[in-house]
């Protein structure tokens, strides 16, 4: 698959050949779904917590005598049956993460790249470099028509570009090591630098 390479100012900078093994697969929704679910579950905090009857603040005194009242027998007010009593079998802090084989994660990333390629939503730029001025970069991004874009650079991200992009809505940048299925799929445009293409091919082959 051959794509034109552009500069941030819109000028042409040659072309690049994208590997069919990475960008030419038929995207499978089931693979993408499993990888995204694995990512989101791993990121979930799992800090939800309710109070059990041993942690609520009522007295532990028996509320009335066992017999002779005509009512049901009860112990203290902390029982789950009472308002503001302890919660029975409520959520407790835990990890929501589950395992997913490395090969499957790698396959998911390849299918995400192929999905973007099939949509025609991949743009290859010569390099992601800037002098750190947000206004200038924002103007370039607007002229290129990127509204919700993810830029994937090589092993390292240019500090000037990172600084300039921080305050631009809808623009994010990641090094190749941070490339992941969820971030790729949730953006409208995937922008790869030439260094990013080479690093992705090296990572996934």
Protein architecture, described:
This protein has two domains: 2-45 and 99-204, Ribosomal protein L4/L1 (Ribosomal Protein L4, Chain: A), CATH 3.40.1370.10; 50-90, no CATH class. Helix 2 crosses helix 3 and helix 4 packs across helix 5. The mean pLDDT is 93. It has helices at 20-23, 29-43, 102-119, 134-144, 159-165, 181-185, 194-204; strands spanning 2-6, 12-17, 122-125, 149-152, 171-174, 189-193. A six-stranded mixed sheet has the order 2-1-3-6-4-5. It starts with a strand and ends with a helix. By secondary structure, it is α/β, with parallel strands linked by helices. The protein contains seven helices and six strands. A hairpin with a 5-residue loop joins strand 1 (2-6) and strand 2 (12-17).
CATH architecture of the largest domain: 3-Layer(aba) Sandwich
How many helices in DSSP terms?
Answer: 7
Kindly report the CATH topology of the largest domain: Ribosomal Protein L4, Chain: A
User: What's the level 1 CATH class of the largest domain?
Assistant: Alpha Beta
Could you spell the SSE succession in H and E letters? EEHHHEHEHEHEH
- Tell me the domain tally: 2
Radius of gyration, CA atoms, in whole angstroms? 27 Å
Going by CATH, the homologous superfamily of the largest domain would be: Ribosomal protein L4/L1
Strand content: 5-15%
- Low-pLDDT parts are none
Largest beta sheet, briefly? 6 strands, mixed
Fraction of residues in H or I helices: 25-40%
Q: How many distinct beta strands?
A: 6
How would you sum up the global shape?
elongated
CA distance, first residue to last residue: 16 Å
Q: What class do helices, strands and sheet pairing give?
A: alpha/beta
Strand order of the largest sheet: 2-1-3-6-4-5
Q: How confident is the prediction overall: mean pLDDT?
A: 93
């Amino acid at each position: 698959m051959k794509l034109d390479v552009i500069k941030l100012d819109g000028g042409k900078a040659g072309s690049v050949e994208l590997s069919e093994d990475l960008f030419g697969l038929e995207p499978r929704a089931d693979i993408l779904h499993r990888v995204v679910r694995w990512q989101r579950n791993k990121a979930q905090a799992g800090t939800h917590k309710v109070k059990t009857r041993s942690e609520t603040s009522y007295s532990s005194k028996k509320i009335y005598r066992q017999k002779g009242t005509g009512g049901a027998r009860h112990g203290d007010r902390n029982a789950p049956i009472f308002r503001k009593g302890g919660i029975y079998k409520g959520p407790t802090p835990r990890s929501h993460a589950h395992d997913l084989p490395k090969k499957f994660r790698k396959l998911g990333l390849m299918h995400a790249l192929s999905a973007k390629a099939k949509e025609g939503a991949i743009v290859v730029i010569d390099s992601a470099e800037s002098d750190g001025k947000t206004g200038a970069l924002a103007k370039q991004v607007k002229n290129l028509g990127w509204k919700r874009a993810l830029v994937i650079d090589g092993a390292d991200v240019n500090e000037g570009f990172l600084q300039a992009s921080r305050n631009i809505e809808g623009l994010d940048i990641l090094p190749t090591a941070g490339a992941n299925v969820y971030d790729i799929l949730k953006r409208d445009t995937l922008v790869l630098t030439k260094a990013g293409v080479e690093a992705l091919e090296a990572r996934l082959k």
